[in-house]
User: Fold this.
Amino acid sequence: MKRVLGLGLVLVIVLNLLAACGGGSTSSDAAQPVGSSGGSSKTYEFKLATTVQEAMPAGRAAEIFCNDVLEKSDGRINIGYYPNSQLGSAEELMAQVVDGTLDIGQISFATASGYADLLEVIQVPFLLTDNESMKKAYTSEEIQAIFDAVEEELGVKILCMAEHGSRVIANNVRPVRTPDDMKGLKMRSSQNGACFETLTALGASPVGLTYKEVYSALDSNVIDGEEINFTSMYAEAHYEVLKYVTDVVLWPFPAINIMSGKAWNSLDPEDQAILEECSQSCLENNFQFLEEYEAEAKQVLADAGLEILEDVDPAPFQERVASIREEYRAQNDYFKNFIEMVEAM
Assistant:
């Protein structure tokens, strides 16, 4: 009898240990770890969605990021890639990340700043006007301080930034060589406070349209032009419904690769480190692809007959909107520190 009781006790202990090991960590509804023995043996299925096409520099970099994570995790972290608005608009993707139903989104700052206005400082006019300055700013302590505050506010993890290309002035009415040439032009703008304020100060009438509405609005003369990047004019064929491009950089058009808090917290620390490492490479790849794609885009636009004005003096445009930078500088220390960091480059 004692022997039977002893065996029974051992069996109970073993079963309890197995149950404890089988508990695993809780992940988001969209990301389910398969197997849960803890540590590096966990496997995950995540989704990364973006609105951009695969050919866009940020889109290409995001796809490579997914592959890099799979390789560095020995196949344990599989991130499915969904470009070209397959899972929704930018606004829908952002909402899904925040509520935890999408694991990772590549979301434009124009959209994300609607949830966290600290991100608006990136698009202060004429602050960041070349790729090298953007790269430095996007990995600076000052931008990380902003990210830390946004992560705490929204309960998310910002993996890295992405860049779609600097925004310039494009229209189908007349060449724009001075701010006076902007007067009365109905210009589609990303729905960001700084962007709307800048176009208004330059004399244009900013119009808020979703990105999918822009081509038809240009074609039907509902709008006269847009603030847009060369890469998007190429990828979205906007060069078919535009005539003039003023190659004066207004601001960058960045995005963030942002992960839901549920998905991020489901990862063990060593797996979080893998995503962070691959995110650094993602940004580097993005800028490499951007330089190549911008050159290709400019050539396609020129071949299509667009008049690209490359000799325009940016100073009159900068003078017209100088007060906007000062308004942002005075708002809070996050903006002040970021602006002064860029000015000191």
Notes: The two ends are 82 Å apart (CA to CA).
